[in-house]
Amino acid sequence: MGVALDGIAIIVGDYGSGKTEVAINLALERKQAGVDVRVADLDLVNPYFRTREARQQLQSRGVDLVLPPAAYLHADLPILSPAIAGLLRSPSPLTILDVGGDDAGAMVLGALADALSGQRFRMLQVVNPLRPQTATVEGCLKAKTAIESASRLTVKGWIINAHLMNETTAETIADGYRFGQRLAAASGLPLVCITVPQALAAAVPAPDCPVLIIRRQLVPPWQQSDPLAKV
Amino acid sequence: MAKVLMKGNEAIGEAAIRAGCLNYFAYPITPQSEVAEYLAKRMPEVDGVFLQGESEVAVGYMIFGAAACGARVFTTSSSPGISLMSEALSYITCAQCPAVFVNIMRGGPGLGGILPSQGDYFQATKGGGHGDYRLFVMAPDSVQEAVEMVMEAFPLAEKYRNPVMILGDGLTGQMMEPVEFPDNLQKAPTNKDDWATNGMDTRGSDKRNLVKSLFLDPTALNAHNLLLKEKYARMQREDVRYEAYNTDGDYQALIVSYGTMSRVCRTAIDNLKADGVEVAMIRPQTLFPFPIDAIRQAVGREHCRLAISIEMSMGQMVEDVERSVQGRCPVEWYGKCGGEVPTPEEIMDVVRERLAG
Description:
The complex is a heterodimer of chains A (231) and B (357). Chain A is 32% helix and 20% strand. Chain A has 231 residues and is of the alpha/beta class. Chain A has an eight-stranded parallel beta sheet with strand order 3-2-4-1-5-6-7-8, with helices on both faces. The two termini of chain A are 18 Å apart. Chain B has two domains: 4-192 and 228-236, Rossmann fold (3-Layer(aba) Sandwich), CATH 3.40.50.970; 242-356, Rossmann fold. Chain B is built from 13 helices and 14 strands. Chain B has a five-stranded mixed beta sheet, sandwiched between helices. Chain B has a five-stranded mixed beta sheet with strand order 9-11-10-13-14, sandwiched between helices. Chain B has a two-stranded antiparallel sheet with strand order 1-8. Classes of the chains: A alpha/beta (231), B alpha/beta (357).
C-alpha cells in the first residue's frame, strides 16, 4: 500500500524523530510511483543531517530540491530562501516541506502563512516512540500542541517512524505500530503510515495502514547508505 | 533500562544527571547547543540548576566557584568557547578543584566552521591556558561511550582533584545512536570537607578551608607545581585507557586514531582485512594520559613496519605517537580538517600507498 499524498505535505516532528529521512524516502517513493515531487529543506535549526546532504540521491531520481544559496549551505543561519514562497504559490503535484525539529523548527511556517493560504496542504507529525520525549502518547500530544502553537497550523495525521538505527528489529516496528494505533485513537487523527527499514520489509506483517520503506540515506561517514530502489 | 535513541548532546546531558551532577553552567555554541537545550528542560525536573552565563569566560568561573564549594559541576562548549574558558581551566587546575568540561569540537582555527573536527588536541592535552597544568582527557567514539565517560569523569575528577575534559567532535554531539543508561544513579560524594569551602557550620569544624591559585612565595609555587606533576604522573600510572582493534593478526601497519575518526578507520580495517591486508589499531580512550606502552608494544610486533596517526587535524597527535613508538618504525600522518571527514575508502588507499611506498 503506497502512501497516497498530494498537494503540500508539511513534515514536522520532535527533534530527532527522523523527519528528514522520512521526507527523503517519501519523495523518492512518490517519484517512483510517477508523481512529480519537489522537496524544500526548511531546517533552519540544526546544521547536521539535513535534507541537503541527500541532494545527489534526490536529484539523480529527478526530485527537485529547493535549498538556500550554495554559499550558505553549511551555515547555521536562519536563511529562508525566497524561492520557497514561490514554490508554495505554484505547487507541483506533490511538494514536501521538511521542517526543522520541535516547536523552534516549526516557527518558520508562520513566515509562510501567506504563501500557504488558499493552498491544499496537510501537516503530518513524525514520531519515533524510541525517542525519550515521545515515548508516551502524552509526550507526543504535548509536542503536537507546541508545534501547532509555533506554526499556527494544525497537525492532520501521524507518521510512526519507530527505529533504533542499526539495532531495529521486527519487534521494534510491531511495537511502534501498536503505539501508533493508540496515538491515533487518543488524538482522533489518522495513522498516515508507518516506516519499515528495507532490510526488515519481509519480516514485518502487513499493518492496516500504508507502509513507507526506508532506505537510509543520512548515515555517519563510516557507514554506507542503502542503495536506492531499482528504477 | 531499555535502550532509547538519543543524540550525543542529549545523552551527555542525561549522563551528567545520572552521575549526580545537578549543576550545569554553559553558553550556547554550535554544534553542542542541544546539551543546553536538553538540560534547560531536564534540570528543573530533578531540582538541578542550569544557568546560562553571559559568556564562556563567565561560565569558566561559575564552574570554579561551584567546584570550590565541593559541588559536582560541569559545562559543555565547542572549540572557541573552550578557548575562552582556558584561563579558568588553568586556575581551577592550580586550585585543585574537580569539574568536568565537555568540548564538542568544530573546525578551527578562529571562528572556523561548525562541522566536526579534532583540531583541539593540543589545547586539550597540552593545555590551552597558561602554566604547567594538565587535564585528564577522555575521547568517546560513540554515544554510548560518551555516556559512560561522562559518568566516569566525575569520580575521576574527584580522585585527582583535577578537571576532566571529554573531547568529542560535532559528530559525537549530533549523531543519534541507541543508548542505555545504568539503572543505578550515582550520588555526589560528601567527603570534600578537608578542602572544599563548603561552610564551617555545615561540616562542624573550626578549620577554615582555602581554595586559591595564588602562590607569591617562589619556593611554595615550585613545591605546588611538583605536587601537580606527581598527580599527572599518577594518572599515567593508574588510569590510561585504550582499545586495541585487530591486534591479534599478523599486521603490517598500526593505525592510531581516536573518537569518531577511529570508527571510519575501523570500517577501513575491516575492508582491508577482507582484501587480505592486515592492519591493527590502538584507539586511545584517554588522550592524557596517552597509551604510550600499548602503542610501543603494538609496533613491536614482528611485521609491523609503520605507524599512522589518523586524525581530523593537521597532525597534532603525531608527536605523542612518536614518543610512544620511540623510533621503532616510521610514524606518518593522514587527516583532514575543516569539517570533511575522511572516508573508509580514503583510509584504505592511504594505508595501501604507504605500505607500498
